[in-house]
Records
---
Amino acid sequence: MTNLEAAKGKKGWVKIEEICRVAREENADYAWVDTCCIDKSSSADTTEFINSMFAYYREVWICTAFLEDLEAGQDLPTEEQLGRCRWFTRGWTLHELIAPKKVWFYDTDWEFRCDRFEVLEAIKSITDIDRRVLGKERRPLDDILVAQKMSWVARRATTHVEDRAYSLLGIFGVNIPLLYGEGQGAFRQLQEVILQRRNDLSIFAWEEPSPSDVLCGVLAPRPEALSGAGTT
């Protein structure tokens, strides 16, 4: 950060200040913020981060999730309120929700509202993620069917089409070359790598929401085709 005064004028500065405040209150030695800890101008740095993201979040003590569209209040957020929060529809926040041991949710005023366990059923309903993945006695991800894990991004959006596949790398414990511009080819490549490692036929249990006459082979053309995998 070469120009501190200029940085303070940016939208993300408040997020950095508030996360550091939370870290001090919890006597944490360090705080890591994706707003400023990734050099997005460097393809090497971006690749390393994407391939390591899930491992980073799995090791954190507390993950703070800022729900900027959650109105300020004192009560436990309802499923309806949480369902309106864009945080639950963004592709990359999937890591933040699943990997950490603790996830704390903050509202638009940066006031603590609840942790993941307190709104477990609401999150399960909103995201279709198995409650045993999100709860205190967490089920290993390797025990979850491939199709089910892929369905977790079916209703999530990313800036780049390829990131819907890349956001699943850590969840499946695989790495693939990052090639922006290949579109849905990234999702097919992800499936090919998974098939080399897992004998899980659920990966073929896909169905296009809007069937067409276009032939696309045995692999799902996009995450939406696996949206019916559901939860247990």
---
Amino acid sequence: MAEEMQQQQDMYEGKVKATIKEATADQVGCRASKHIWGEVGCIRYCASKQLSPVNGESIGWARERLTSIDHASRKLSHVVMDNNIGWRHYEARWEVVDEEEVGGCRIEWSFRMEPNEEWGEKPLGPLVASTLEKIARAINEVFHARDDGGQGRSAVDERQ
């Protein structure tokens, strides 16, 4: 898992990467766009104990809207519309690329958001990296189960 993080012009920006050894970029891109996201405009709700709510609630949550999807190039982007964790102007881009040297593929998750008082200097990168690791593990399990003759299961967003 690789991680980059920097603060530029009052925005936190970063990029994390995870390798999927059990599937090609086309397989992962197709599955993610159909089973995790859906179509442009779709809204999904994510909740996690890892997220620190700023309003005293016990679980942090966010509502995300898919803003673009390009099936051919396996890219998508989304924004956080509403949340209780203090994020402002969060936007992210995903890209799934072939990993020719080691086989399989790689998910690259780029993100940026406006820093705020609630988060202070707390970096976003480790949280995003942890979430991507869980997603990558779930995707590997799905495709590994299929290779073993199993029924497989849907790769779901595991933001906990």
---
Amino acid sequence: MKFFQQAFLYDDSWSTVALAYLLRYPNPYASHILSCDVISRDITPAGTLRTTRLILKTGSLPRWAPQGMIARAESWVLEESEVDPLGKVMNCTTKNLDHVKVMRVEEHIQIRQADDGKTLQTTRAKFLSGFGWGLTKKIENYGLTKFKANLQRSREGFFIILDLIRQSRRQPMTMGAPSSFLVSHHILNDSDAKAPASHAAPRVGDSKDSTPEQPPRPATGGGAWSRISSWLRSR
């Protein structure tokens, strides 16, 4: 079994980060997400919002994988989240529902308000394979390496949604006019565009490093809406 842990610190408020996390799909860097559907949502007696979503992802196998290792490249993922608006804490757990004999991946995310008003996200993940045939450790190492490599790309997509929410909250409300964020996210949901073919991402820190990272500086030459517009024009 392999483990991963990392902390990340946002300058934004907890409510902004938690909302962005729940609305992170779709985005230009998540072309591997084929669908994301809410299958249940309720308010608990304690006043927390509990949501269960079913996510369909696609991926690729390494070259060394035996032929017929899995029947198809898609994988169903179950996401269970609970938001506590009073305690300003959100916990989210995701795990794959199929291909579990090849590898079971569980990811635990906690987003909570820090003492200084910033927001701390803690990510923990574990990778467990029961495939055997001398490939167990190799599969687990591949899962960990792939997870770390995709982390920065996932964060880039998340920051696009986060920036859209920032922009929408800075705009004055006009009666009867939709916010720019709602319009932008509606366009993303209606689009079947793919993310850019390449993206140079900084190297993610070691899996044992639990020191909170600082958010990257916004890209120059346009905000989130400009990046999304460019993405849509490339369709």
---
Amino acid sequence: MPSALILLADGTEEMEFTITYDTLVRAGVACTSAFVSDEKREGSSGSYESNPPFAKGSRGIKILPDTYFSPQAATPDKYDLLVIPGGAKGAETISSNSPVQHLVREYIQAGKYVGMICAGSLAALRAGLPKQPITSHPSVRDQLKDAFEYSEEPVVVSGKLVTSRGPGTAFPFALTLVELLCGKEKRAEVAGPMVFPKGTFA
């Protein structure tokens, strides 16, 4: 069974996190969500490893993660996919985290998939990934366009790096991840009961 580690933080975009997690679970992917704390929260409240706090999303929705982010428990020998959602504040916390940056490079080097959506694509820049096709939310385009081959396609697959644009592209992003991990037939099987309008990305 394929497995995925999906990161989240305070300020993570709820749709990008939830749609991706839910769609992967429908495909039979074993998903784990891990809370990445910013220094301010971690410094004032101590360690949450055994009892992670809820993450307060970009629209104020509270999400209870499965675990607290631990670099040692997040290595590419344990998961087939690493997902970094957007949301300006959450993406900043996650992409600025040095262990996350290291993991992004490790996953790519190990031939494992890394998915980034919306401002989460900043993690590609902060991790120092080589110039390649990429997309993101328009709000962070200017930070990425010189370092990468910027695209405005809904989903861009560049080797093992998969990037997407925002809440409105979360379904094609998640279904692309399903296809890469589980095949085209599984993508169709998952998309069917979701009842997408005819002619859309499913």
